[in-house]
Design goal:
This protein is of the alpha/beta class. It has 17 helices and 31 strands. The structure holds coenzyme A (COA) and adenosine monophosphate (AMP). Residues 141-142, 166, 168, 173, 279-280, 283, 285, 307-308, 332, 334-335, 338, 364, 499-502, 532, 567-568, 570 line the site of coenzyme A.
């Protein structure tokens, strides 16, 4: 089947197309109707079906000959350990934890926050929730207690499942103080916290806590609980323009159908093969491609606890691919840039037999041509950029290599996938001509698996995505489409920045900086960074009369962002200026600052960590009259 035929097949009968794809899923009650129009541009898929995600990701494979196949490989260069879990073992572990959650009073529909590092138990926790129809919300370990507290208050979890610690190179991240601090800060209090003790840093338990293993003793393993097709499988918070994160809701049935489709058609793997996404369970890539999609499809997935470089060297990725016979590998461009910087000639790669690898898939941020070409050269396999978002949960535009490998045009994530009618619009919501820049929007309805709304925030959902271009979903990205239908993603149209493949809100950082007593006004902009894609830089206007050393204030601001948002914000640079470049109506000209920082004249240094760049930004602002000293 050609891509074009598949895409046209979808377009001519979207509901029939997705009902056909739904046949690959085990239903308790199959969907009779595909699409439900709820009015006001809200849609749901397969709402009349009954299904269980855990059954599809685990039990059915045990029943159908994959009991002894490895489901999860845990490979942790940080601890120097590896372990393998078969589908049969996974079923036992998940059913047991799910039974313990039931015994602790967690029922179908209750929310459970999961705050775990890259250990296989993180997947066990997600699947245990899915088994009993509890709605999990995984929070990334690099966020501070305050961010965790915001999520606790928004989704009001009955339980929290956490580990005692995470491990960053050379640093133990003690989760328990962060967890306790967050619960202290939050208005809502969970009934129970299930704590997985890790040998590297066990913690003390309080009255609210139960031990992961102890709470499972003598408890009856839980069976899969069927839920309605539109039951939320999970909530995943992501950054928007303001400081309050958006709770993206993932609907159960559509998620199963869509993710299953992607494994062969995009990622080219057959059941039984090893698939690896080097990301983190805290991000959407981790949800979809470390946990759910590979397991739903009967693949072996890898939970990797390490970094592309330094754990122990720039050959780690290639070692994992060779050792576990990975067929398709998915990571963020920033990770490849980190490897390239450390080992530009690809000498580490020469040490490993990568003949089993079919392709490298990149997403999460713009893939720059240098990185793609370098990876193609050293790996000798196609490198496929693909574009998607937390909101969609799977590829909007990609190269459907398992269906038909389309020619790669470097700089483009290729073409729209079935389900997505992507249009480039001008301000009046009219499609622009091929090759012209505009806002990227998707004609409603979005396909199965994409967000039907935001958690407890229908109005915010409408306002954020549905109002600018009536009848369309606004992606927040700008770009263009060429004559062949290839998309080019150029920039965000909002205040979201992308740092090392992590989506962050400059608005959230500004709120934290504005809370500093000496800061009268501030702006945070993302400037180009050779390693991380973008890096946040703060511009601070001080309150009249403040004459403390600027270095001191900057250091306090950096600490505030780290303490209140977390190390993941990677906020390390700020500069004091006299005033901010603004329009007449008072809107900060972020674009101007970014342009100054990124301009050729500055011959961008290797990374934003170079202090020279800050001086240059300041000098440039002085030249145009915004900063004096
Ligand atoms: N728990 C606690 N802290 C974390 C963390 C976690 N799970 N993940 C990152 N951090 C910390 C880092 O230790 C770092 O702290 P530091 O300021 O004390 O050094 C800080 O957050 C910033 O992290 P990051 O921006 O990731 O920078 P880095 O220098 O640690 O690593 C890369 C840079 C490129 C190697 C790394 O970002 C990477 O491997 N990215 C892969 C991309 C990826 O996973 N993308 C997800 C979407 S696909
Ligand atoms: P997230 O929700 O964290 O996955 O971030 C989604 C955003 O990351 C998108 O809206 C884009 O701005 C950016 N992004 C993701 N993939 C790509 C890509 N392949 N090319 C360019 N930008 C991308």
């Amino acid at each position: 089947m050609s891509y074009r035929a598949e895409y046209e097949g979808w377009k001519s009968d979207p509901e029939g197309y997705w009902l056909k794809q739904a046949q690959a899923i085990d239903w308790v009650e199959p969907p009779a109707t595909a699409l439900f129009d709820r009015g006001n541009d809200f849609y749901e898929w397969f709402a009349d079906a009954r299904v269980n995600t855990c059954w599809n990701a685990v039990d059915r494979h045990v029943e159908r000959g994959r009991a002894d196949q490895v489901a999860i490989i845990h490979d942790s260069p940080i601890t120097g350990t590896q372990s393998k879990t078969t589908y049969a073992e996974l079923k036992g572990q998940v059913a047991s934890l799910a039974g313990a959650l039931l015994a602790q009073g967690v029922a179908t529909g209750d929310r459970v926050i999961i705050y775990m590092p890259m250990v296989s138990e993180a997947l066990v926790a997600m699947l245990a929730c899915a088994r009993i129809g509890a709605v999990h919300s995984v929070v990334f370990g690099g966020f501070a207690a305050n961010e965790l507290a915001v999520r606790i208050d928004d989704c009001t979890p009955k339980a929290i499942i956490a580990a005692s610690c995470g491990l960053e190179p050379g640093r133990v991240v003690a989760y328990k103080p962060l967890l306790d601090g967050a619960i202290e800060m939050a208005d809502h209090k969970p009934d129970v916290c299930v704590i997985l003790q890790r040998d590297q840093h066990p913690c003390d338990l309080t009255d609210r806590d139960v031990d992961w293993h102890a709470c499972q003793e003598g408890v009856k393993p839980a069976e899969c609980v069927p839920v309605a097709g539109n039951h939320p499988a999970y909530i995943l918070y992501t950054s928007g323009t303001t400081g309050a994160p958006k709770g993206v809701v993932r609907p159960t049935a559509g998620h199963l159908v869509a993710l299953n489709w992607t494994m062969k058609n995009i990622y080219q793997v057959d059941p039984g093969e090893v698939f690896w996404a080097a990301s983190d369970v805290g991000w959407v890539v981790g949800h979809s491609y470390i946990c759910y999609a590979p397991l739903i499809h009967g693949n072996t997935t890898i939970v990797f606890e390490g970094k592309p470089v330094g754990t122990p060297d720039a050959g780690t990725f290639w070692r994992v691919i060779a050792e576990h016979d990975v067929k398709s590998f998915f990571t963020a461009p920033t990770a490849i840039r980190a490897v390239k910087r450390e080992d530009p000639k690809g000498l580490e790669r020469q040490k490993y037999d990568l003949s089993g690898l079919r392709a490298l898939y990149l997403a999460g941020e713009r893939a720059d041509p240098d990185t793609i070409e370098w990876a193609q050269d050293i790996l000798g396999v196609p490198v496929y950029d693909h574009w998607w978002q937390t909101e969609t949960g799977f590829t909007i535009a990609g190269n459907p290599a398992g269906l038909e490998a389309l020619p790669v045009k470097i700089g483009s994530p290729t073409v729209a996938m079935p389900g997505f009618d992507v249009q480039i619009l001008d301000e009046a919501a009219h499609p622009v001509a091929a090759g012209e820049l505009g806002a990227i929007a998707i004609k409603l309805p979005l396909p199965p698996g994409t967000l039907p709304t935001l958690w407890n925030a229908d109005d915010r959902f409408r306002k954020s995505y549905l109002t600018t271009f009536p009848g369309y979903y606004e992606t927040g990205d700008a770009g263009m489409m060429d004559e062949d239908g290839y998309l080019y993603i150029m920039a965000r149209t909002d205040d979201v920045i992308n740092v090392a493949g992590h989506r962050l809100s400059t608005g959230a950082m500004e709120e934290v900086l504005a809370g500093h007593a000496d800061v009268a006004e501030c702006a945070v902009v993302g400037v180009t960074d050779a390693l991380k894609g973008q890096s946040p830089v703060g511009l601070l206007c001080l309150t009249n009369g403040v004459n403390r050393p600027h270095d001191e204030i900057v250091a306090e601001c950096v600490k505030r962002v780290r303490d209140q948002i977390g190390p993941v914000a990677a906020f390390k640079q700020a500069v004091v200026v006299d005033r901010l470049p603004k329009t007449r109506s008072g809107k900060i000209l972020r674009g101007t600052v970014v342009k100054i920082a990124d301009s050729e004249a500055f011959k961008m240094p290797a990374t934003i960590d170079d202090p020279a760049i800050l001086d240059e930004i300041k000098v440039a602002l002085q030249t145009i009259g915004y900063a004096k000293d």
